[in-house]
Write a structure and sequence with these properties.
Shape: globular
CATH topology: OB fold (Dihydrolipoamide Acetyltransferase, E2P)
Radius of gyration: 18 Å
Number of helices: 2
Helix content: 10-25%
Distance between the termini: 42 Å
CATH class: Mainly Beta
Low-confidence stretches: 14-22
Mean pLDDT: 80
Number of strands: 6
Largest sheet: 5 strands, mixed, barrel
Number of domains: 1
């Protein structure tokens, strides 16, 4: 009985460690901007403050500033409010056309963006 509990604890600890190690790595926006193609094939995470946001019918975009730069994030799940501290996971897309998601001002309609998989307001 004691051996079974110990074996289950070891398996559970290994599973948690494996899950933790497979989580996406957090990068600074300046790192992403320096090599966008490096991050376009895998999920990455950023954290920062929302400085601008636009939404319409649950879709939208918001700009995150992490102190090293700014990056637009496209979301189909709603957007956090301006001034919020947020952590975001997603994939990087270069020359992405934002107008398919929401009507935005001309300067922010296309370019380097993160397509959000999930976000959490902190």
């Amino acid at each position: 009985m004691q051996t079974n509990i110990r074996a289950c604890a070891i398996i559970l600890a290994a599973a948690v460690l494996l899950l933790f190690m497979s989580a996406c790595e957090q990068k600074s926006i300046s790192q992403i901007r320096a090599q966008p193609s490096r991050y376009s094939t895998r999920e990455v995470a950023i954290a920062g403050n929302v400085v601008r946001s636009f939404s319409f019918l649950g879709r939208g975009a918001y700009e995150v500033d992490d102190g090293t730069g700014r990056l637009w994030v496209v979301s189909e799940r709603g957007v956090p409010r301006e001034g919020s501290r947020v952590g975001v996971r997603g994939t990087i897309r270069d020359a992405f056309n934002l107008s398919s998601f929401v009507k935005l001002p001309e300067p922010v309609r296309s370019g380097l963006v993160m397509v959000e998989n999930a976000h959490k307001v902190r």
